[in-house]
Amino acid sequence: WNNLLAAYAKEGHFDEARRAFKRMPQFSMEACIAMSIACVNKGKLQSAQRVFEKCHHKDILSWNSILAAFARSGHLLEAKLVFKRIPRRDFGSFKGIIAAYVKKGKPHKGRMIFRRIPQTSRVLDPEISEMLIRGYGSQGMVMEAKNVFESMPQPSASCWAAMVECSVKNKLLLEFAKVVFDAMPERNFSTWDSIFGAYLRLKSVEESRILFDSVPERTSSWWSSMISAYTRQGYPAQALRLFKLMDLDGFRPDYGTYGTALFVCSS
């Protein structure tokens, strides 16, 4: 029964999960948690709470699971009520309530709770730091995100990426974003894409081209964006030269890039 219920819940088949739950001869803790989370995902919060109360022997994993479900769904009030009821909170409990505040656009509140976690736990697990960096970044509070980042002795790769991605949204912090980008131990495609997009928006075409030439693997969209940038800023010869290089490099231009090349030729 537990496996059947978990499978229905995971695939989003709420009605089937509910029917399976009702047919169970005895409610296990795993079944109650799976059904509670399914109710939260469906927006049936009162049903989720009623099912959760059927768990007679709640352990910390069950508390943290329902808390995380409320946090993911953006139900801050319900997450706070669960957090207050947890008898002995662990790191997962704090992570869950911080996620709930960040999801609701309140990273400051999340950071206040973050400071209540023992320093050793904060250093060992960077997930909350990344959560706060992205939370501040989504609210345009880039300096606060920078403070969180700079307080980390050894930022994880995901924290480096998060700091670059939120810094490039602020024109005044683009140079800082590039410094962070250059210092990254390893860079993923998303980070390259973020910094290149910011350069196209805020820097000269020459500086964008330097970055373009340094990327290990270019995509078709990068070629198209660089060609469009040359065209917009009045460099038709460079745009056509890059268009030819794109073809030689094995990339097929899309209709928009062909249109740009035809426009350059006609003018």
From TrEMBL:
InterPro entries associated with the record: PPR_At4g14850-like_plant, PPR_rpt, TPR-like_helical_dom_sf
GO molecular function, one term: RNA binding
Family annotation (Gene3D superfamilies): Tetratricopeptide repeat domain
Keywords noted in UniProt: Repeat
Swiss-Prot/TrEMBL PPR repeat ranges: 1-31, 59-93, 219-253
Alphabetical GO biological process terms: RNA modification
Pfam families recorded: PPR
NCBIfam families reported in the protein's UniProt record: PPR
Protein name: Pentacotripeptide-repeat region of PRORP domain-containing protein
